[in-house]
Amino acid sequence: MQNSDKQLMDSSATPVIQRVSPRSATGALSPLNKGAIDWGWQSFVAYGCHNFVVVVDTQHMKVFQTLENHKHDIVKVKWSKEAHYHDQWFPYNLKLASADTGGSIVIWNVAEATVKASFSDGTRAVTDLEWLSGNDSCQNFLAALHPPYSIIIWNTETGSKVWKKSYTEVLLSFSFDPFCDSNVVFLASDCILFVDDFSVSKVPSSNGRKCYISNPSTMTSSLQSLNTLSTGGSNRNISEEKSKPRSLLPRRMKFLIREESKSGSEEAISLNDCLQLAFHPAYRHHLLLLYPKEVLILDLEINQTIGIIAVERNGAAVTQMYPCWQREAVFCLHETGSVSLRVRHKGTSLASVCTPSEDTVSVGSFDNTVELCYDIRCQSDALRLTKHARLMGMAVCPKSECRVAVLISDGRLLIVELIPSQQKVDLPVKEKEELKERERPTSCCQLPYSSSVPSPCLWLSDMFGSLVQNLDPYCDNEKDILPNSMSLKFLITGYLNGLAPPPHVIRMCPPVTFRNWTVYKPLMAIGNALGGVQVFNMATGIIEREFSLLTAPVRGIEWVSLTAFLSYAYPNMMASCGKVRNELVLTDVQSGRTKVLRSEKNEESPIEMLRVSYMKQYFIIVFKEEPCEIWDLRTLYLLRIMPKTFPTITALEWSPLHTKKHHISNEVDGSDIQDFMSSFSVSSIVSKSSVTSKTMVLTREHFVFTDTDGQLYHFSVEGNVVRDGSKIPPDAGMGTITCIAWKSDHIVLGDVDGNLNLWDLKNKVSRGIPTHRGWIKKIRFGPGRGNLKVLVLFNDGVDLWDIKEAQLISQTKCAKDRPKVQDIDWAGSDRPVLATADGCFKITDINLKVCSSPLQDHHPTELPLSLHMLPVKPAFHFKSLLQHQPWQESYTLSIKEEDGFSPDEVSILQKQIETIDLEIQEYLKHCPFGIAERCLLVARLIGDKEAYQFWKVAVHYLKQEELALEVKTSDKQEEKDLLELSGDTFKPRQKQSCIDNQNILSPFNEEYLDTCFDTICDNHVYQKLQLERLLLHDSKRTTHSQSRKCAEQFLLLGQTDRAVQLLLEAETGQEHYYVDSLRACLIATIRSSGASQSVIKLVATNLIASGAISEGVELLCLIDKGSDACRYLQAAGQWEKSVRLAKVILPYTECQEVLKRWTDYLCSPHMNQKTKALLVLLSMGQFEKVLEMLRTFRMTERAALFVQACQEFGAIKKNEQTVDIIDTVLLDYARYLLSVNNRRGALHYCEMVGEKGKDLKKEIEYLCEEQ
């Protein structure tokens, strides 16, 4: 109410009446809602509450939108990934999918609160949902798992099936491989099902490959094995059957075995306890299986566990996990409500099973195996969960991966944030000064710009470095501490509370009038079963106050002013006598002060109803089996207790009519109530009222009630005098009256048989309407002068009638399987409110159908930074200002109408800018690496995943390009200095590798790309990752097939000595001994002599032609024909494998050729992965080619910003070869800016291209003059 007070003090302020739009408020969740929560890149959390979808603004922690269309409880919600380029034809939008227990799937436009599509297949609950993101045109396709056997691809634009595939196993969930679009894995009831031919366009031809988790060690109980797992797999036992060099087996190693190779001697581990299955988005081929006490990490290349994340022996079980894509980390939600972060480290070195022979020339790292270990980095405190509060799910913010939403069954949503408890160690001052004073080796680069603003630390990748930076398998020193590490901790930074447990009693505050409209707020008081009252703002959807007033369920609420209300309660009757202890409390909403009335009373008959007079002078308390009491509201003094012979009241209502000559004011403004709150002394209240009574005339008020016979009585109250009036006999055909409503000259009575009796006092007309719907529980008139609409509450639903016309306007009936309506009221003249038994209430339209509204109808006072909720043109205009403003003297975040926005748009955009952290606002103004870095930051802020990936790779390789130029210039200078000193022109100099460049002190030294980029990473980083991975496989291998695969990979990596060792491990009695021995001899011979390469190449070619591609490629790599091997792999359609091989073994030039062919393949119509092709070209340093492709693909905005970023880095220079494409791109961007109403920007780019933009410039100037 602070804003209201300011408005009252400032007479010049124009108050605005808050408009109430249809919406819903939710409370406790259904048990079936478990797991129905998701956090999208758009920064919103969506979760299911019964049949509602609740969307939460996580920046301001308030309900942003509620959606209702489902008929059953919601079991899954998924935000659209929208991993595609956005422009005016493919704008930002809030698209969400939800599925329920009845098998229905609804696609929502959240901003408009409309259903885009709805479809179903059967009536069983959908068990899993996932949006597809394989190619650039599949953003509208949704994969749904329909039990028990089917997966269906739905086109969400048309609501039609693309295809349906049924399997033979009962499927529980699935996960798509983030590195290969054709791979998907299903978690079945007793196995894991692998599918490697998944495609959006056609049904998978195979039925998948069934695999089981098996433990070869002889244990008495697999459950015992699961509960006693160790994290490193370092403990080993010796098999009694084997005493050979490979006899050491991990004591608790798990394998994936195919169904056809399953034997009875192997102990299968049940998957019934498996809670979740997911691919690791940071590492290729890593599959995570969640069990209550551990997480198994399977490597699908060797079909074996390579690591185990075990819960401490006394630790709480894990219910959900989230593997991170930015770092090698996993979030875990424990059953106590705590959240833990487990981060991978290199681990302790272990003695290798196979020791290299003395005459073998091998790197030292093969004596030490690499262990996959995850340690707890930090863990939040446990929550106080009761039997009525259970964990329902966890969702992690995908763009920051530092914020975790925890959903609890009582409707609470907690935001647990990962923050640094201490700042990370910065560079020494000496190195800082050296970096700052370092002279630029090239004059074409303008970067980095001088800036004193530190880089913001808001994302997981900022809090600790990637393990790749410390992953040096050729180093004997252990580096367990992650680079750039800092101390981390979890804090609860957000809390959202829902409605308290039902049953609910609702009562709207007095309606808005000409007297109170300057301070009016549409508040609804909601009483709950715990004795509390929540005050809900019906316009903003926020619980403004919450009071714990009573010790029993609230039975009724009546407002006595705009800021105070009476509430009463009594416990559920346990004694046979029917006596209870009533509680009656007066509460002031603003101050929170309370006054307990009738505290001296002991057990008595329960309060049946409480009614406050229209003039707010009196209130009547009606008891079930005792006479009623009449109280003076202003003095809180009991005026009269009716005699015991008084009729039993079944319904009562105060009259809105009064004698005008005694009337002073139509309303009590609440000042009297506030005055008495200054003291709770009864004597002071009475004395003060006696003084007041001398200066104020009391108004006579009237009330009517009915008895059990249906007879209507009329009484009047004036001061402390109660006078009996007339008596009207019951109408024929009416049963016992249960409720009365009175407005103006109209009275409506309802009875136990569902009959409505309409009285027109002015015309003295009575009319009966039989509804045939049973007992009428409540009748409420709508507010507003002349509004004669009434809500009628029945046991099975609600009717809305126009009393003046005696016409039914709308009707809603509760289905048998849906919650019933428990209470009704009005939030406005055309806004009925329905409170249901599931703990929710709905503000509907006049037809009782719609309970959701577009976001703009809510008129929120606080807005998150989101382009998804803005109209198309303002959204992209705003985005262009955030990214680059060369037409301004300096970068600014101040939005004005001069920029081309309307006043309403300026207001909205300024609210969004205010939500950006001040640290980020300052960094946006002073980005050291200019346009590219600012575009990267903006992409993260607005939640544009595709733009983030592009600019992340672009910034990295633009820095690499400039760093290479620095190194080249530095090398030339060193050679010149050496020549001047020694004069020896023939002295050789070793070329510095790109790995060594990381040690060069330069502002362009960039951290490695995250491992989630995989083949987009630098070649030397990718080689390092593959070697580390191979060492891990080598330490875990237990079968001949695994040893054979490791030998092949060592050979491809150039580690021929280790490959020979593995091949020579075969025993003489084994069937593959002879073949392996010949292979070892061949490898040793070729590497020593190098003869007969033509014969080997011929044999390799024949093997490939006959289908033995792996063997042929192995031979080609053996004779240094890796380029040919990659070409054969591409011809066989194994493009990903050819690229991985090229990045590992080929020189830079030959690798570029392989990647170039790959980009052409990605851009082909049947692949349609242009976005990925652009990333590959960026990794190749082909910036001009990227620019051409951006223009070809009509990515106008991206192309213009990219060419300017390249010019800042000096990667693209404007010369005779590039001037045409640069000017064309900038001119296209000028047209684009003009289309989004950014005329100032369009004029600037017209001037940049000179004569080519002359015509467009004239057009813009003409439009400006016309406006």
Automatic annotation (TrEMBL):
Residues 32-184, 273-381 form the WDR11 first beta-propeller domain. Residues 920-1212 form the WDR11 TPR domain. It comes from the Eukaryota. InterPro entries: Beta-prop_WDR11_1st, Beta-prop_WDR11_2nd, TPR_WDR11, WD40/YVTN_repeat-like_dom_sf, WD40_repeat_dom_sf, WD40_rpt, WDR11. Residues 519-848 form the WDR11 second beta-propeller domain. PANTHER family: WD REPEAT-CONTAINING PROTEIN 11 (PTHR14593:SF5). This is WD repeat-containing protein 11-like. It comes from Limulus polyphemus (Atlantic horseshoe crab). The lineage of its organism: Eukaryota, Metazoa, Ecdysozoa, Arthropoda, Chelicerata.
